[in-house]
Amino acid sequence: MLEIIETLDERKSSICCNSKDGNKGKMKCDMDSVEGSVSQRACVYCGARVVLNPITDAYHIVHGPIGCAAYTWDIRGSLSSNEEIYRNSFSTDLREQDVIFGGADKLTAAIDEIVEKHSPKLIFVYSTCVVGVIGDDIEAVTKNAREKYNIQVIPVYSSGFAGNKSAGYKAACNALLRLMESAPDSKKAIDIRDSNRFYINYLGDFNLAAEIWILTGYLKKIGIDVVAKITGDSSYEELLKAPTAELNVVQCAGSMTYLAKQMQEKYNIPFIKISFFGIEDTAYSIMDIARASGREEIIQNAKAFISEEINKVKGHLDYYRSKKEVKKAAINVGDENNPI
Ligand code: SF4
C-alpha cells in the first residue's frame, strides 16, 4: 500500500503548488539541510561546483581531501556541444601531513601539472572545509599561477562551515565576476551587431537535458541572440563576452539572482526573472523577453512563434490529457541518463 508521507514543517515553505494556493512564487530554496534527512543540499563547495561545472572547457581543481572531488560532473550531468574536459575532477588529495604543514605547495604542483599536460585557458581552484580550517592562501597561489602562465586561475571561496549550499552559489557567482572582469577591453566592447536583433545572457540554466539548445533555438527564431549561457554548455570565451549583453534573463533565481544584480551594478545590464517550465510559463517568458527588447518586430515575431508552437503541440497535449485526467503523476525533469 502506498504510504502517504507528511511534509516536514521545516520544508513546507520549499514546496509550491501552482494549482493550489501554494506559496505563489515565494518558494524558499536557500535553507540548510534538516538534521536526519538525507538530501542533496550538500556543502558550500558542492553549491559552487554545480554552478561552475557546466563550463565545458574549464579545469576544476578541488583543493581538499580526495572525498570532496567525488562531487563532479556526475552529480548533475550537463551537456556539452564541444569540450568534455569539464567532466573530470582534479584533486590535491590533502592528507594529515598537509593539514599540519599546509597544502599550498601541493596546490601549486597541481596547477603546474595541469598547465603542463593540458594547456588550459581557465582553471577554478575550490577551497574545501579543511582548507578553510588550515587557512591555505589560495589567493596568493592562484595569483602566482596567473602571473606565471598568463591564464585565468580563479579561486572559489567555497570552504565548508561558511554557510550552506547557497553560499556556494554566491562563491561561484563571485568567481564568474572575476572571470568577466579579466576580459580584455576588446572583449568588453560591443561587437559589430545587427541592431534589429536583441542580445541577452541566459542565467541559471545548466543544460541538464539539452533544454538550453531548444530555448536558444526558439529565441533565435524571433530575433534574440544569447551572448552567454551561464553556465550550461558555456565556454571561457563565451563568458568573457557576457558583459556586452543588453539584458540578463534569470531562470534559476536561487543561484543566479546575485550575479544578475552584480552585473546590473557593474555593467548596467538590467535583468528579469523568467521560467521555462511548462508551456504557459515558457510562452509568458518569451513574451517578457521580447517586450524587454523594446523592438516591435521582435514582439510580433514572438506572438506569431508562440501561437505556431502551441498549435503544434495542442494535439499531443489533448491526447495525453485524455489519458491522464484525474490521475496524479510525477514528472522527472531530465532524461533517463541525467535525472535530477
Ligand atoms: S567541502 Fe567539506 S562538506 Fe564538502 S565534500 Fe568536502 S569535506 Fe565534505
Describe the structure.
The protein is an alpha/beta fold and 340 residues long. It folds into two domains: 44-181, Nitrogenase molybdenum iron protein domain (Rossmann fold), CATH 3.40.50.1980; 187-322, Rossmann fold, CATH 3.40.50.1980. Helices cover 43% and strands 12% of the residues. The chain is built from twelve helices and eight strands. A four-stranded parallel sheet has the order 2-1-3-4, with helices on both faces. Strands 6-5-7-8 form a four-stranded parallel sheet, sandwiched between helices. α3 packs parallel to α5, α8 packs across α12 (296-324) and α11 runs antiparallel to α12. The two termini are 26 Å apart. The relative contact order is 0.11. The model has no long low-confidence stretch (mean pLDDT 88). The structure holds iron/sulfur cluster (SF4). Iron/sulfur cluster (SF4) binds at residues 43, 45-46, 64, 67-68, 128-129, 160.
Strand-helix topology:
Elements: H1 44-52, E1 59-63, E2 90-91, H2 96-101, H3 104-118, E3 122-127, H4 129-134, H5 138-149, E4 152-156, H6 165-181, H7 185-188, E5 198-205, H8 211-222, E6 224-231, H9 236-240, E7 247-250, H10 253-267, E8 271-273, H11 279-293, H12 296-324
Parallel strand pairs: 1-2, 1-3, 3-4, 5-6, 5-7, 7-8
Bound molecules: iron/sulfur cluster.
Iron/sulfur cluster binds near residues 43, 46 and 160.
